[in-house]
Amino acid sequence: MSENVARLNKFKNKGRDANELRRRRVEVNVELRKAKKDDQMLKRRNVSVAPDEATSPLQERSQNCQTLRQWTVEEIVAGVTNENRETQLQATQAARKLLSRDKHPPIDEMISAGLIPKFIAFLGLTDCPPVQFEASWALTNIASGTSDQTAAVVAGGAIPAFISLVTSPHQHISEQAVWALGNIAGDGSALRDRVIKHGAIPPLLSLLAVPDLTVFSPGYLRNVTWTLSNLCRNKNPSPPLSAIQQILPTLVNLLHHNDLEVLADACWAVSYLTDGSNDRIEIVVQTGLIPRLVQLLGFEELSVVTPALRALGNIVTGTDEQTQAVLDAGALSMFPQLLRHKKPNIQKEAAWTLSNITAGKDTQIQEVINAGLVPYMVDVLVRGDYKTQKEAVWAVTNFTSGGTVQQVVYLVQANVLDPLLNLLSSKDSKTVLVILDAITNIFMAGEKIGESDKLSLMIEECGGLDKIEALQSHENEMIYKAALNLIEKYFSEEEQEVQSVVPEATDDGYAFQISENENTFNF
Prior knowledge:
This protein is mostly helical.
């Protein structure tokens, strides 16, 4: 019950209250990048395809005197503490290979053996790039583990060491340092802010300060974009505003790149930045990137559409003006395909986004009508999966709450009542209460034009009265009170019904007219 009230109170200002009410998303489950890094370990560990391939002439030589068997952790410790540079390289490379294997890399054993400080020291060996590279790779994979494992890398002083390597003249070393910083920042708000405080953002952005991003290999650019997205990610607290303002111009550039992975991660970054207060949303809106996000909604690739829709969905939880910026960019024209997308999750996110648009002003509700979306909303109520139906219920209820009488009449004429009433059998009390709220709002509109008796008959004819009556025995007190209130107010005199109030039957059901003292609604 209280959850339902809490959600109602989170919608934007609908004229019920002087305060601006907002609705934030309930689930924080970002599909592609879960908050726990250990869930995406393989995703962000550098698992080499051919671990025995040499990556430099020095390694080429050193591999000739190396057997193919794996080293033990003890042998690695002995090798890295040896004064001979080539032995150090062989041992560090052996550690990297162990940490790159698919299953059960010996991360804790490496930490316990005290190898982290040695590897961090190797990051400073500018006279020996192969050792820098192997140590970077090994530390990246240790930092891809649990929070404790990441913390062990940070405690050894890795953040400033990696930041100094971001601008290494050797691109493969720079890339590995960028990747490591991404793993550290992705651990959560605390480490993200430490990476930012150590000054990671200016060197990262300097990498991309080139006229044409196509000079980079796809892998390099993807890694830089992913690390930037992790610097935008996580809340409680959100990233510092100064950091966001530094990163945003580069994100806007990346949103116009042609690589799908770069686009996806840039969109996720924007979705993280818009998942916050209105002032944070405003900083993003001011960059002018909304039209590009709308374009990206039209992509075939789910990896791009999902975060682009999430970002726009977050923006419309903001003020009416921020929502209007999304509407002005033509976003609603993309919704027919989104509400009928083959992936139920996209339908759900689209319905959620729409529910925050219909929570806006009646002029914005009119734009939803003009874009032809009401039949799609009704269709989702009929055919959508349950989670999508729940979001569509919110979209309809917000529509009935903020819409004009004419707009509510149009909704009824679009046959919303039948599927809405069918969902009263839902097991979810919150959804049932929201539907009852919508029906009450529709009756209030009907009363204003003297049509509440016709409405009662329409609801009775489609079996809705039976469903409302059944709720009088519901275990939830608010539900049975709301149902009882509807019955007493609008259905208690059905016995005395006279023919004059029966609406004219048509092929499409009942004609639901607006009386002459109201403006007629043209559609």
